[in-house]
Amino acid sequence: MGLPLPWPFDRDYMQLALVVGLLIGLCAPLVGAFLVQKQLSLLGDGLGHLAFAGVAAGLLLALAPLWTAMAVAVLGALAVEWLRSRGRTSGDLALALFFYGGIAAGAVLASRAAAEGASVNVLPYLFGSILTVRSADVWVIAGIGIAILVLLALSGRALLAVVLDEESARVAGLPVDGLNGLLAVLTAVTVVAAMNVVGVLLIAALMVLPVASSRLVARSFRATLLGASAVGVVSAVLGLAAARAWGLAPGGAIVLVACAIFLATTAVTGVRRGVVAGLLDGPGH
User: Fold this and answer.
1) Which domains are assigned to the chain?
2) Which tens digit of pLDDT belongs to each residue from 5-29?
3) Which end of the chain, N or C, is surrounded by fewer C-beta atoms within 10 Å?
4) What single string gives the DSSP state of each residue in 187-213?
5) How far apart are alpha carbons 182 and 187 in whole angstroms?
């Protein structure tokens, strides 16, 4: 990219990684906030395993793994939502079915692809390979990120009404089933878009941890969204810097930074509440 950025983003590959990291750090927590509010925090994890099956299918069929993963993850997300909404099984059981089925199918398909002589290296898809992204990857992820932001901007209020109370939203005339399906699809698309950043096994953490940190201090859902995106962006920048400085796996470093921010926020808010409680319980009360 050739931008005049300081170390550690002075190299082209780091600048490409930075752009992708910022996009995913911004978008993933926005979708994750609705999942956390709906108590479906593990949906991203389950769809990540399905995306892995899609990657393996792409390797076996000699197709682009990104698009096969996208197709499988979207179909799986809609299937999970259909099972949950129809009451055929609980949300947890539906997730477990696709969670274990996806990883098993991925292992079987990947081994079959290797047996047929295909070049099989699934580690970049499992744990991310952000330092190897190309300009074409950046454009694809940027397009996906913009689509996510636009859809959330257009449907955010309705989605919030649904995740807060489905029955009230249905009475108000909102298309509850369609909005639930939209949230499931957005989750699947986010998981696949983040495949090159933190990998399908770690993306759920980047969708949930920034939201958990933001909820500790935010006083509204809007503030939660803004705070979660800020934490996601900071996690991406600091994680990439740590990876360059100490030779760490970038995807893991990004998630560890998000973990550290959550722990620090928890500690600070705990101390603050303790101080407030001490003042209220002090002399004269």
Assistant:
1) 12-280 (1.10.3470.10)
2) 888 999 999 999 999 999 999 999 9
3) C
4) HHHHHHHGGGTT-TTTHHHHHHHHHHH
5) 9
